[in-house]
């Protein structure tokens, strides 16, 4: 997208846009000829809204590319993920309100489980409780590395933030997570000469962490991924002229929204219903709302088809609360696909529902992958979704004479 073009065409008004994003929404059937999780779920409210909407399938990054959560969200937010690469560590750090400095390299950490041979048996250490995480973080904070400061902060369950602060630290670093079990964690490698110093120091930290956690169970080792420094990126207000708010429970997604200049709407509680309550309470204060549902992705990664179906149905049951607010534009989509049969993110395009007063409805009274494949939006790059939303909100003026 040409951001300069967007800035020239944006015409602020009172229209309100809601992006309801179910993380990892896209799925696959369990058997040939079967239904995906979204198609299996009983979703009378989504289906009724789909009948009045335009449907399609979006590629978060590009066809055939499996996106991480950061790139997947950036695409849906209207940014080209190939142009704006943002490390997961930055997003996690911002999500817990850690103020990153110019000499900081951040990474997203996982507590994990390894066997006596050092091979991974669980990349998430059984999703340990956050209280246990906090105790283990205290152990890691005792690690000292000459020449740099080390910060370790609890995020949630098995996740933590690792930050190294010092002069001359590059962030072109490989990850330690091999993304599979039965093999050892990988050493960090420098991907350019400017990152040699950071590699040496981070690998020292990892070895020290291995020793500190050796007697712990199930979290007896760490994985680090998404090394990055704080990037420069234009805000939602600058690009789209939107006063935007984020409603998200998980820190990483709050961090991404914060990076784009969205305000954080505080959620009292952690349920999907709590998030919709936050939307209602803040309705008058903003003109764009990003409401994030994490549990669809968690269920997919756990390989739990039925639980993912249940989460989708839970969101569908809350949809009337959104409709009662009468937003001008509603987007229902995901940041990527996480089929339960794969237990991981995948390259499959994600379903998109775009409802608005001025949309041309497809009259397809069903919200699912195959229904969206028949929709008028077709298969398109996710970064094109925000201009469509702005146009249907009458927030873009005419281009040219």
Summarize the structure.
This protein has helices at residues 3-9, 37-40, 44-50, 69-76, 88-95, 130-140, 196-213, 236-240, 251-259, 272-281, 295-301, 305-324, 369-373, 385-392; strands at 17-22, 54-59, 104-114, 120-122, 149-156, 159-165, 221-228, 244-247, 263-264, 288-293, 329-333, 350-356, 378-381. With 401 residues, it is α/β, with parallel strands linked by helices. The radius of gyration is 21 Å and the shape is globular.
Q: Describe it for me?
A:
The structure is a single chain. The protein has 2 domains: 3-85 and 234-392, Alkaline Phosphatase, subunit A (3-Layer(aba) Sandwich); 91-228, Alpha-Beta Plaits, CATH 3.30.70. It has helices at residues 3-9, 37-40, 44-50, 69-76, 88-95, 130-140, 196-213, 236-240, 251-259, 272-281, 295-301, 305-324, 369-373, 385-392; strands spanning 17-22, 54-59, 104-114, 120-122, 149-156, 159-165, 221-228, 244-247, 263-264, 288-293, 329-333, 350-356, 378-381. It has 14 helices and 13 strands. Strands 9-8-10-1-11-12-2-13 form an 8-stranded mixed sheet, sandwiched between helices. Strands 3, 4, 5, 6 and 7 form a 5-stranded antiparallel sheet that branches. Helix content is 32%, strand content 19%. The longest helix has 20 residues, at 305-324.
Note the main attributes of this structure.
Alpha-Beta Plaits, alpha/beta, globular, 32% helix, 401 residues, 13 strands, Alkaline Phosphatase, subunit A
Strands of the widest sheet, in order across it, are 9-8-10-1-11-12-2-13
- H-E order: HEHHEHHEEHEEHEHEHEHEHHEEHEH
Main sheet, how many strands, which sense, barrel?
Answer: 8 strands, mixed
Question: What would CATH call the homologous superfamily of the largest domain?
Answer: Alkaline Phosphatase, subunit A
Specify the number of helices.
14
> In angstroms, what is the radius of gyration?
21 Å
In whole angstroms, how far apart are the ends? Answer: 21 Å
When the domains are counted, the total is 2
* Tally of strands: 13
Quaternary structure type? single chain
Low-confidence stretches: none
Helix content: 25-40%
Please tell me what the overall shape is: globular
Strand content: 15-25%
CATH architecture of the largest domain: 3-Layer(aba) Sandwich
Q: Please report the first level of CATH classification, the CATH class of the largest domain.
A: Alpha Beta
- Mean pLDDT equals 96
